[in-house]
Specification:
Blueprint (H helix, E strand, L loop, with lengths): L7 H4 L20 H8 L1 H8 L4 H59 L2 H9 L21
Helix pairs in contact: 2-3
Length: 143
């Protein structure tokens, strides 16, 4: 019941409005090219204005293929970025190892000098020979 109207019976029922719609169709003869274009997905989209169910279902495999290509493209770019990062990391590690190798080699060359070896073994009581070493010859019948 309407609170603002006290008596609905006095006013009567509301009249229904009828709208007359007239569709004006102008038929035009389509050429072969227009017929072929109208059958394609883009043709239906541009001619009808809204994609119909048939056009959407016809285009679904193509859209799935495009989505698949997009995912492959994104995965490929991530893979490439990760490879570049890994290569940079390995290059830095190779440089560090190369410098470590060079410094250890230089240190070994320094420690293997005659004077450095003599200093190290002097604490053990071993001294450098002044005379050349003597050759010991053993005869086969003596032994």
């Amino acid at each position: 019941m309407n609170r603002f109207r006290e008596d609905e019976e006095e006013l009567g029922p509301e009249p229904e409005l009828k709208v007359k719609t007239e569709k004006v169709k102008t038929e035009r003869v389509k050429t072969e090219e227009e017929k072929k274009f109208a059958e394609t997905f883009l043709g239906k989209f541009f001619i009808e204005g809204v994609i119909s169910k048939e056009a959407a279902t016809d285009a679904l495999p193509f859209l799935c293929f495009l989505a698949f290509l997009g995912m492959i493209y994104i995965a490929n770019s991530h893979f490439a970025v990760n490879n570049v990062r890994r290569i940079d990391k390995l290059n830095k590690e190779v440089k560090e190892l190369r410098w470590e190798y060079k410094s250890m080699k230089a240190e070994l060359m320094f420690k293997s000098k005659l004077t450095e070896v003599a200093k190290k073994v002097d604490t053990l009581g071993i001294k450098e020979l002044i005379e050349p070493p003597k050759k010991i010859i053993v005869k086969s019948d003596e032994y």
